Amino acid sequence: MTNQKQTGSYYTPQYLASFISKRVLSHFESRARMSILEPSVGDGAFISELAKEENININLTALDINKVELKIASEKWSKKTASFVKTDFLKYSTSKKYSVVIGNPPYVKKNILTSKQIELSKAIHSNENLTEASVKNIWATFLVKANTLLAKNGVLAFVLPSELLQVKFAEEVREYLKNEFERIEIFTFNDLMFECKGQDTIVLFAYKKAELKGEFFTNISSKKSLEQNDFVLKNNNLLVKSNVKWTHHFLTSDELTFIDNLKKELKTVNDYSDSKPGIVTGANKYFIINKETENNYNLSKYTKPIIQKGLFVNGSVVFSDEDIQKLEKNNRPTKLLQLNDADKISKKLREYLDLGVLEKLPERHKCGIRKNWYVIPNISKKPDAFFFKRSHLYPKLLKNDSNAFVTDSAYKVGMRNGYDLNSFIYSFYNTLTLLLSELDGRYYGGGVLELIPSEFKKLPIPYNKISTSQFDNFTTNFENKSNIEEILIQNDYNILNSTLGINNEDLLKLTKIRNKLKKKRLRE
């Protein structure tokens, strides 16, 4: 789709629009008439489905910011009872209350919105006693405003990003929904429901009035099960009352209680270590170069070794100068261009800086706020260890035995007094901590696991003091492993029995829970 990032439009598959429309209309099957608002019609997928209703007289109001798409959608509605309005939903004003607000709102981050849209979003949230912190993406504002336009017995049905279930700013929005609706239904999916990279979606149904109250969840394993209504909605009170992210609704109350009791016994990453984000260059492709570029522009006296991303450190728990040399030989970008304000600019360096000007780097926000756009601030000293915030099969915490720095793809880790780095890294690799990484982090389409700084700092660690020889043995085993499960089998009993008194039966239970979380994230 053209300009998708700015418009935030991800079109709804017809079968999903059909399921949502039918489920909403079935709630009103005893009605002769009803009013429906769709605040962003897009290509009219919901319009097509609602137009098929023969028993209920629907008074439709359809909005969109795009005149062309609005016209296309209007052509899918043959009935007279409709109005199609070109407007931004954030600006839409009416005293009317609707039986249903339905649709797939745009997904646009705050930093891409116009200043007017941000101003309108803040006002909408503020009017509902929500803080400015909840204004992070336009879908959240659509959700809040849609609620204000519902009748007392109305229904809200939206396709939304899975952010609603797991990111920090959405906690406030979730609490808002719980207070505003008697019944909430969340549908999660095994398959990405949209043909767009990395956008994991859910479906939310929220009922102002309901006989059976509460928050209900289900996971849809296939398109077929959705079309045949082959699913069971289950209430999960413990999940909703706790701080556990709603993405993990498939965990039982027993499992959640078991995990919570173990967590209470442990100190966290922040108790043992200090962690900060790595270096923010403002333009990694420009400031992190390979050996060939370094030679071409005579930049060696201005560079330092650096690890650009976690993909480059697979397979070990120690990163050495030998490892950085291997990356260099494979022509990976391993050189950080570190310039100072006082540096004299040579002819060859000037040539390279001119390339940055051609790429308009001085106009980028992070470069533009510097005294000299090419001088990266806050480089500090090389880290003792680093934790990569994004991972695939398992999170990565490595000791840094090299002279390499690291980008903000990782957090720099240094130990607090009284704690040993080798023991900390060894203790990290156990089933409980990796399970809690899955539970406390968030994941995206494609199965990428991410822990933001606060989530990493709060991660519980069953700290075990080990000797240098034990760490060397652990390092060797880690490098020779076929998979991370081999390491967990070796480590678990030593780490978890000595700190928590966990027996083999408990270990098996933890392993099953972790596998359940990992399989859901990786869509296995």
From TrEMBL:
InterPro entries: DNA_methylase_N6_adenine_CS, M_Eco57I_C, MethylTrfase_TaqI-like_dom, N4_N6_ade-DNA_methylase, SAM-dependent_MTases_sf
Protein's name according to its UniProt entry: site-specific DNA-methyltransferase (adenine-specific)
Keyword Ribosomal protein: no
Domain Type II methyltransferase M.TaqI-like, chain residue ranges per copy: 51-191
EC number, UniProt record: 2.1.1.72
Keyword Nuclease included in the entry's annotation: yes
Superkingdom field: Bacteria
Key words, A-Z: Endonuclease, Hydrolase, Methyltransferase, Nuclease, S-adenosyl-L-methionine, Transferase
Domain Type II methyltransferase M.Eco57I C-terminal per the UniProt entry, residue ranges: 244-496
Lineage of producing organism: Bacteria, Pseudomonadati, Bacteroidota, Flavobacteriia, Flavobacteriales
Family (UniProt): Belongs to the N(4)/N(6)-methyltransferase family.
Listed Pfam families: Eco57I, M_Eco57I_C
PANTHER family: DNA METHYLASE (MODIFICATION METHYLASE) (METHYLTRANSFERASE)-RELATED, DNA METHYLTRANSFERASE YEEA-RELATED
Reaction(s) catalysed (UniProt annotation): a 2'-deoxyadenosine in DNA + S-adenosyl-L-methionine = an N(6)-methyl-2'-deoxyadenosine in DNA + S-adenosyl-L-homocysteine + H(+)
Enzyme class (EC, first level): transferase
Example GO biological process: DNA modification
Source organism (scientific name): Flavivirga aquatica
PROSITE patterns: N6_MTASE
